[in-house]
Every structure is written in structure tokens, then in C-alpha cells.
Specification:
By secondary structure, the chain is an alpha/beta fold. It has a single domain, classed as TIM Barrel, CATH 3.20.20. The protein has helices at about 40-45, 50-60, 85-95, 110-115, 130-140, 145-155, 180-185, 215-230, 250-255, and strands at about 10, 20-25, 70-75, 100-105, 120-125, 160-165, 190-195, 235, 255-260, 265, 280. Helix 2 (about 50-60) packs parallel to helix 3 (about 85-95). The radius of gyration is 18 Å and the shape is globular.
């Protein structure tokens, strides 16, 4: 059993907890970047931007009385939405226990000045390398510098920050250099995410992106422990199961809803490239 001071106690291999409701609302699919591994598929997800009134009405459909409901606002790039701060405040009033914004780091519309750490529980950033030489070929020229500068601004203002690193063949060897950067930036929670064959990566060869089992198992748990030893919480998926282990689908482990601007509601993210959504929102009704 891990003790409170044991770094292993800060590592989780499952991001969802049974009994919780997790709502992932894509406010828009537009983005200022064109990441090589973006999972957004406009043909399936639409190209609309939800206005604030519609977004708030949709959020009201998924609050569960007596059950903890967590909200993640994303895109596209959610900070491109001019009313994001209004939507954050409305979500808290609706009863969401936690509100997170997933951003590429550009923080448009002066988000840090329009909301506060008491309203926004976590501001999550995406970086795919410990330096620009690794990150920017995947996410765009100049992105590393902008993102890290805005992380420092957010931390200085008291926001709780997390960081998502999407592991692929293009950056797995750089993962071991992340712990010191995370500590230097003041990141509180680190998500090591495996590349999914959705969106752009699904259009090419899987071998161009996916990491083999041996390298994942050799490197990822070690990096997670190194990060945890610096006092940072780490979450990464259990990508490869032992023969005796059962597969736990994200659609069954918790009450999960992945919502897109065209009204599609998926229960499992693996289905998002296809018209096999479980639910649909029409006229603000589920």
C-alpha cells in the first residue's frame, strides 16, 4: 500500500472514476493551429460555434443531482470563444463540481483577466515536447514559447494548471526530459496521453504514429514516477493489458458524454470518427 508521502500515490492509470459524470463539451471545432495529430473531424463533428445561450442550455442537460459532475470545455481552441468566461461562470452556477478548460496555450480574449481560480478549477495546456525542437514540428512554429509563457502567467495568477503530452513515435524519446520542465513551470497535474487513431492520424498509416508495446512499458511508467517524485500528480492510460486483466471501456466505467457542436453526443471517444453517436441534441433537448 502506498503511503501519503510515496510518489506512487500520485500516479493513476485511469482518468475516470466510477459514479462520476464527466462532460466534455466542444464549444467549437475551429482552431488557430493545425496540429499534425489533431483528432477533430469536421465531417463528423461539424464546423459550428455554439453561442453562449446554447452552450449553457446544453450543459444543463447533463448535470446529475446527487452525483458529482465534472466539465471539460474544449474545441478546437475553446479560448477562441468570445464568451468562454461567461460559460465557465454559468457551469458553476448549474452545479458542476469542477470546470476545466483545455487550451493549446494561446489564451485568446484575455481569459486570465476575465475569469479567476475560484471559477475555473483547472486550466489545462497541451505540449508535445520539452523544447521547441520537438513540440513545434507537431503543433506549429512558435507554439512552445507562447504556451510556456502563458503557463507561467496562469501560475503566477494562482490558477491550477495541468499539461497534456500526447505520446507518439515522433516524441516518445523526448518524454524523459519533461519532469524538470513541469516542475519549472509549476504544473500540478500531468497527463501522458497515447496517440489515438482518430482525425488526422487515422488518415495515414498507424505505424507512422503508434508506439510499440515494449517502448511504452519501458519508458512511460518510469517517467510517471520521475514526475511524481517532484510532487506532481500523474495520469496515464493503461494501454496494454496483461492477459488476466479486463478491458474497461470509458463509456462504461463512468457516465461520460463527449459533445460536439453539431449536437452529436458520444459515450466513447473511440467512436468519434463515425456517425455512431449514442445520443443527439436537437432543439436543446437530448
Amino acid at each position: 500500500m502506498s503511503s501519503p508521502g510515496d510518489p506512487a500515490s500520485r500516479i493513476r492509470t485511469v482518468g475516470f472514476r466510477p459514479g462520476e459524470s464527466n462532460v466534455f463539451l466542444h464549444l467549437l471545432t475551429a482552431c488557430n493551429l493545425s496540429c499534425r495529430h489533431c483528432y477533430i473531424n469536421p465531417a463528423q463533428h461539424g464546423s459550428a460555434t455554439l453561442d453562449a445561450a446554447t452552450a449553457i442550455a446544453w450543459l444543463g442537460l447533463f448535470v446529475r443531482p446527487g452525483r458529482r459532475s465534472n466539465l471539460v470545455l474544449l474545441g478546437g481552441e475553446p479560448t477562441m470563444h468570445p464568451d468562454l468566461a461567461t460559460i465557465i461562470r454559468a457551469a458553476k452556477k448549474l452545479g458542476y463540481a469542477s470546470v476545466t478548460v483545455d487550451s493549446n496555450g494561446f489564451l485568446f480574449h484575455d481569459l486570465l483577466q476575465k475569469t479567476s481560480p475560484t471559477e475555473l478549477d483547472c486550466l489545462s495546456f497541451s505540449l508535445d515536447g520539452p523544447e521547441a525542437a520537438v513540440n513545434d514540428p507537431l503543433r506549429g512554429a512558435g507554439v512552445f514559447d507562447v504556451c510556456t509563457a502563458n503557463i507561467r502567467r496562469a501560475v503566477a495568477l494562482g490558477f491550477t494548471t495541468s499539461l497534456i503530452y500526447t505520446v507518439s513515435r515522433h516524441n516518445i524519446e523526448a518524454l524523459a526530459r519533461m519532469p524538470s520542465l513541469l516542475e519549472d513551470l509549476g504544473i500540478r497535474r500531468f497527463f501522458i496521453q497515447v496517440i489515438g487513431l482518430r482525425g488526422k492520424p487515422a488518415a495515414g498509416s498507424a505505424d507512422a504514429w503508434q508506439v510499440d508495446q515494449g517502448r511504452w512499458l519501458e519508458l512511460v511508467p518510469q517517467v510517471a514516477l520521475a514526475v511524481a517524485r517532484r510532487g506532481i500528480e500523474v495520469i496515464f492510460p493503461k494501454v496494454f493489458l496483461d492477459p488476466a486483466e479486463d478491458f474497461a471501456c470509458a463509456g462504461n466505467v463512468a457516465d461520460n458524454y463527449f459533445i460536439f457542436p453539431n449536437g452529436r453526443v458520444y459515450r466513447c471517444p473511440l467512436c468519434e470518427d463515425h456517425p455512431v453517436n449514442a445520443l443527439r441534441i436537437e432543439n436543446n433537448r437530448l
